[in-house]
## 1
Amino acid sequence: MGKSFIGIIGLGVMGRNLALNILDHGFTVSGLDKDLSKVVALKEESKEMASSFDSVENFIHSLEKPKKILFFVPAGHVVDQVIEELLPFLESGDILIDGGNSFFRDTERRQKELKNRNIFFIGMGTSGGESGARHGPSLMIGGDKEAYEHLRSLLEAISAKVEGEPCVDYMGRGAAGHYVKMVHNGIEYGIMELIGECYDFAHRVLKLDEKKISDLFEQWSKEELASYLMEITVHILRKRDDKSNDLLLNKVLDVARQLGTGAWTSEEAFSLQVPAPIIDAAVTMRNLSSRVEERKAYAQHFKSGLVSDISEETFSSPFYEELKKALFLSIICTYAQGFSLLSEASKRYDYSIDLEKVAKVWRGGCIIRSQFLEKIRGAFQANPQLSNLLLDPNIFREIEEKNLLGSLRNFCLYAIKVGLPAYAFLSALSYIDAFRSEKLPANLIQLQRDYFGSHTYERIDLEGTFHTIWE
Ligand SMILES: NC(=O)C1=CN([C@@H]2O[C@H](COP(=O)(O)OP(=O)(O)OC[C@H]3O[C@@H](n4cnc5c(N)ncnc54)[C@H](OP(=O)(O)O)[C@@H]3O)[C@@H](O)[C@H]2O)C=CC1
Ligand SMILES: O=C(CO)[C@H](O)[C@H](O)COP(=O)(O)O
């Protein structure tokens, strides 16, 4: 039996589907998982799959040189454990690829440790979930460019395509691939929270049922809001429970779980001092959702969930348009915050990330793919140094011409009036309002800091730093 082009360790949701995708494209694959039944099942599903390996040694020997080994195991210590197990069998020039959601600092450390042994370590951000892995994911590559060249033909073949262009590219040195994927997930958190809040408003304030909301969202997903997350939301809103007569949504606990990438994005944004309040709000709202007992106890103090009811006549169809525009602008702001973080990180960590390429690989296959990413790509094509998407003349014009800001403000006013939690929308509004403020009260903060801590301040009329003797 010939040697395999690539080996995959971890044949769960992602590894299994990616293996099948790779096989479909004519590349040979060996698979390994600590759960042997997964290896056997995959071999049964695809006769071309080279398995079943009951030991790392046999698995390694089934691979052609340089050995290319892709991991899809849980992020964290398991990745280190897998590397430890492989090390005795690796040779100079071998290439390890971590396709999981690893923390970028871990990837940097692994790259340094393995470089001493002349082993390449690629951090590959992977998006698209189960179906993306099977039919075409979006792939964000970081690490040694030469090592990427060994994988390029395979990754271009298996990735999603948009107008013939593969949704895979080299993002930059070091952990750039995992960094871009982390920010992708931060944006994913933001958009999911916004869609959730929009649904909540439509349901609890406009008093629309799920059928009507799903029809509305379906219509929107054929317009400016065309995106994967809108599409799946339409399906979710229509899904019936197989254990009762009800909708599945009505049977599901209102606690949003998380594996950490959204919080990492927020922590990074704080660390690099890049404002990303919608992503912060999305993480906070997931955290708040998990405080079930506290929420229940506090809710006892109020007769109804909403502070006041607004008569239904207030909300005729034209208001639905306001809601759509508010969501659209807030989603634009979420992308703006993510790209702004990438722009800063690229400089700080010397990744040299090409933001146009990021938009290109996110247009297809990934969870945050949307029609709007074409405009984002255009913005970075026109100005690769653009520091914030809101400054792009075309995006600015669209916001102005459609009066998106007016709609967002109107939506937020109603949400506040009735007491509906809309933290992500309110964060989007504050973000824009702060950005369009030539003057902020930060002069007062400068003086407060100087007052209590002698931290000094800058003046608008004189160069240098100043301190006032306050008492
Ligand atoms: N699911 C998704 O939509 C996406 C996931 N990711 C990331 O991809 C990675 C994998 O995710 P996913 O496929 O969902 O996870 P799964 O849990 O479905 O699969 C992981 C597999 O790795 C196996 N495994 C665990 N430890 C070892 C080990 N030491 N040696 C060999 N195999 C091992 C697990 O076996 P066992 O179950 O017996 O522990 C399991 O079969 C994660 O980092 C995840 O965050 C990235 C993008 C999307
Ligand atoms: O990477 C992904 C999608 O892009 C994974 O599905 C990830 O698990 C999503 O994050 P979380 O589990 O925290 O919601």
## 2
Amino acid sequence: MTRLFNDPAAFADEALEGFVAAHPHRVRQVPGGVVRATRTAPGQVAVVVGGGSGHYPAFSGLVGQGLAHGAAVGNVFASPSAHQVRQVAKAAQTGGGVLLAYGNYAGDVLHFGQAAEQLTAEGIPARTLGVTDDISSASAAEAHKRRGVAGDLVVFKAAAAAAEAGHDLAEVTRIAELANARTRSFGVAFSGCTLPGADHPLFTVPEDRMAVGLGIHGEPGMGEQPVPSADEAAELLVSTVLGELPEGVDSPRGQRAAVILNGLGSVKYEELFVVYRRVAQLLHEAGVEAVDPEVGELVTSFDMAGVSLTLCWLTDELEPLWTAPADAPAYRKGTVEAADLISEGPAEQAVEEPVPAATEESRAAARTVLAALRTLKSTVDTHADELGRIDAVAGDGDHGIGMQRGSTGAYEAAVRAEQLGAGAETLLHRAADAWADKAGGTSGALWGVILRAIGTALGDTGRPTAPVVAAGVAEAAAGVMRLGGAEVGDKTMVDVLVPFAGALTTATADGQPLSIAWDTAASTAAAAAAATADLLPRMGRARPHAEKSLGTPDAGAHSLALIVRAVHPVLAPTLEIR
Ligand SMILES: Nc1ncnc2c1ncn2[C@@H]1O[C@H](COP(=O)(O)OP(=O)(O)O)[C@@H](O)[C@H]1O
Ligand SMILES: O=C(COP(=O)(O)O)[C@@H](O)CO
């Protein structure tokens, strides 16, 4: 149970503020996260990591000499936005390019990927790497779909040590990929975590049972077993991790490995040591030499009572990178040569861009859009708990919270844009950016795409016609599929967005006014959302728990259907347009 908080919505920001206050000689806060407080050699590759909050010491606690150059810090269990990642990367880089490294979660992949594209376009070469060490999250044949857990540390450290050694971006990326390919983790848990402000855990495990194959977001496990003794737990962890050797390792015997026994939040250090005692014996018996083992909390999931084992099968190249000195708030090793502290300049003030000129017709359309965004926000607020419950069946339970953060940010940005006289396009573009930035996470990136596409179609001049609105929604569907890679049938919001766009396009092409066409399409959306209950998820956080999600609709599909239905009365009176 997370007991100490003020406003739950401010938890991640307040935790970051306190963290920075506690470590002024190692980290400094920048917009979007933290960077090293010490000076980095000019031209060194910057390793910028990041992810959601709730996983401390991942990710901010791993910033410091010998480890990451910066961390983009998202909200609780939600990836940081592309904007945040870009800001942190710009503050951290010293001319050698940037490697963006993160756990392979849908939201992180979308936001870090977008950030890399934007940085490169701005002249800062950037590469990405999603860590995939959790063997329970996908089969070996689909290793690229696996999620990142405590193996994050090994990969971040290898990359950072390679950067400190003066390698260029291509080489640092190759080394990080090698470390990732040779790292495997597996976890178990005895109880789930409770998010700040929530009154129940994201999942529960029966008193005498242990969940196996756990991630770091309170996702349910892949299976259950009776609670073992410490030795039995060690035997399960070791046999499972040794059961899937990476390419190039034919047998454990004679191998050297970086070993992490990771506590996920509320397993005591002494318990971890009791388990590690047997892990060490078993590795020794298998002929594996544990190099600089770590026993402690390296990547957590709030108060989840769980433990995971990570092995990175070292090579001659990886071993010195693993044993190299580091000095981060939550990870210190050996002695680093202390670099100079950066004396902070004045914080940069964000400058508000003026809005481009718009016609009165477009400003009138913008006022309608603003009213729709107000309704959207209140719909999300009303249904936030329900959306969280649906998401918790097979995901991480944060869909309602993420949608609230995004829709509130979008509405506030739209209010400001309307005050400045924005047309429909500019108002929606500002709302889109604010949604992606405030929400982070998968749905944050995708809703940013949706609002932006509709805004582009509406433009800042003229009065939007019904086919133009329909074309904007169709472009939104195409954009979401392009960015997220999901298709109809994968059990995502795409299963609603595509039929909704199709129905709107057909009805408006028939010459129906928008209000009638929207009504028909909203009914199509509701039916499509309900039908996702029969699908097995193939994308996103719910994918590893496919069977559990049968019978429950997809959270993102459901929220989209609720929203398009709720905004209909707002659009109806003002948009009798054809
Ligand atoms: N690749 C994808 N393409 C389209 N939608 C996706 C994709 N992956 C996940 N989603 C949608 O995102 C929703 C989850 O949103 P959110 O809770 O913000 O995500 P997370 O916590 O997984 O980052 C899912 O219910 C699904 O509708
Ligand atoms: O906490 C995390 C959330 O990832 P999403 O894909 O946004 O759900 C992740 O950043 C941990 O690495």
